[in-house]
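Q: Sequence in, structure out?
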Amino acid sequence: MFERRPLFGALIVLTLVVTIWHMSLQEADSSGGSGGGGIGEPTGIVPPYMQGPPAPSFTHYPPAAPPPSSYYYYSNGVAGGGAAGDETSATVSWNQSSSPSMLLLVKPVVERLPKDDYTSLIDLKDFKFTINFNNCSSDSARSKRESMRSDSLKSDERRSPLVIVLVHSAPNNWYKRNTIRDTWGQYDPRAKLVFLLGAVNSSTLQHRIEQENRMYDDIVQGSFLDAYRNMTYKHVMALKWFTYHCPEAKYILKADDDVFVNTPTLYDILESTTQRRRLLFCQEIRRAPVKRTHRSKWFVSIPEYRNRYYPSHCPGYSIIYTPDVAFQLYREAQQQPYFWIDDVHMTGTIAQRINATITPTGSMLLNKSQKDAIIENKLNATELLFFFTTPDLREGEIRKLWKAVTERSKHGSR
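A: Exactly. Output:
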């Protein structure tokens, strides 16, 4: 009996250690999940669908000099675990932004792509970026100018962005791009703004685009023609650019150039929440019928798409991806036949193939009546917590909405 006492003592000590460790994990989860709240969030409560799940978080660590084929995803997961399509590996390393004792599983993701992937875009085998910059964490000419006027950007903050903002824009829409640069796309050390364009047939227009890029350094242009039926090329190109040139971003925001994004609130909430995995966040469209009438600009023939209804999908004007979903969508889209309605194809058909589930925006989407009431000064923006508006906004409406949310920020800081 006396010989068993050391064993009992050891078991008691082990139980106590495990209990304390479990409690510390719970405290860390609760502090990371609720956060301090951001602008427009007076209660300090993070919306439940933006809170981190109890599952392991998804983090990234960029190499010192990232060539296109050698970056790594880091995950707390276990080999073989997670949802379908999750990236896991038995190679072990540690995240230098965390404690050296934090062991993480790592996998070279891009090296799993075909060797000719960088020069392929779905069925285009001679694709290239005609305007590009290589590293989203480096300071562009625009961000350097802005950082000189900002005391918030410290030298140790010039690292990977919290959010990479990929805006689909038509080549002629320079007024819309300037409106975004002046408003919700203003410089923020937590974000990187990129406008996605296709090729043009006019040398004069191309020259103007190149001048615009020299001034702002925020344009990425692909070699396919910028046309209505080439929207899916642009969507996949955006995810290609993320995959090869900005893998260190923690979230990807895909937006159109005629919407308003409440970036102060969005960045604050994303920054204060636990890093999510497998997030596809948007307004969910269910059982949309396929347009068979030739009068519709959305006409799709039966050979193009045989089903009567489209799968649940996101309208493309505002979507938030986590990097794991963005990479899996990109990889799968590169292998599937082309379909020109990018919203349906990427966030419907392709998302289903990788088992990605849509998280609906809910009240984070400002409806038209609320948007109009704010613009007409009939509703105070401080009374609403939102991320996005519906599309088809005029530049003046975007500027008025920006004034409303920035005035809210000024009042909130007093």
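Residues 1-108, 147-158 have pLDDT under 50 and may be disordered.
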